[in-house]
Design goal:
Layout lengths: L2 H33 L7 E13 L2 E12 L5 E14 L6 E2 L5 E2 L3 E7 L8 E3 L4 E11 L2 E12 L6 E9 L6
Antiparallel strand pairs: 1-2, 2-8, 3-6, 3-7, 3-9, 4-5, 9-10
């Protein structure tokens, strides 16, 4: 075997190894960023209503949205809104097509945003949890409340993410 044959043989092996390496990196990248979507945040979004205390004929409440980013990409959200609705004693429990045949809470108490007027978006870094709250009120005559909270992802997908929480209004103190 001449030195030229030797160089040609190992040059061919080098080309094969390079091609295999490129293929492996391509498959890894495809799996990591396309199939597993690691370029996007992985969120846990939870809403809740905390009844803080009574004041005259109303409950002081804290509307809460917790957003935990378990992914590896920063999460940026916009249009971070909510609405709080109630059922009063005189309301019947009526299913609604609007809510997928769930019970309708017909009385809008407040509609608002967790984003201040002068802020266009919030973000949550990977591995962190952010808590957003809004202080409001609920009439003591309400029997139950439901909090709908929702935001839009600010990436090109512009998906909407929502979380709901339903609570019984605590009984009035005698």
């Amino acid at each position: 075997m001449t030195s030229q044959d030797f160089n040609d043989f190992f040059g061919g092996i080098e080309s094969i190894i390079t091609s295999i390496s490129i293929a492996v990196v391509g498959i890894w990248t495809y799996r990591k960023f396309v199939l597993q979507q690691e370029r996007y945040p992985n969120l846990v979004f939870v809403a809740s209503v905390n009844f803080i205390g009574e004041h005259k004929n109303e409950w002081l409440v804290e509307l809460v949205a917790d957003v935990e980013n378990k992914g590896k990409a920063q999460h940026k959200m916009k249009n971070f809104n909510f609405d709080l609705n109630a059922i009063f004693e005189e309301n019947d429990l009526i299913e609604s097509e609007k809510w997928g045949k769930q019970i309708n809470f017909p009385n809008l108490l407040i509609k608002g945003s967790f984003l201040p007027d002068d802020v266009d978006f919030f973000f949550v870094d990977p591995g962190t949890t952010a808590r957003y709250s809004f202080i409001s009120k609920v009439p003591k005559e309400a029997s139950f409340v439901i909090l709908h909270s929702y935001f839009n992802y600010s990436d090109k997908r512009n998906y909407r993410h929502s979380a709901e929480f339903t609570a019984k209004v605590p009984p009035n103190k005698p």
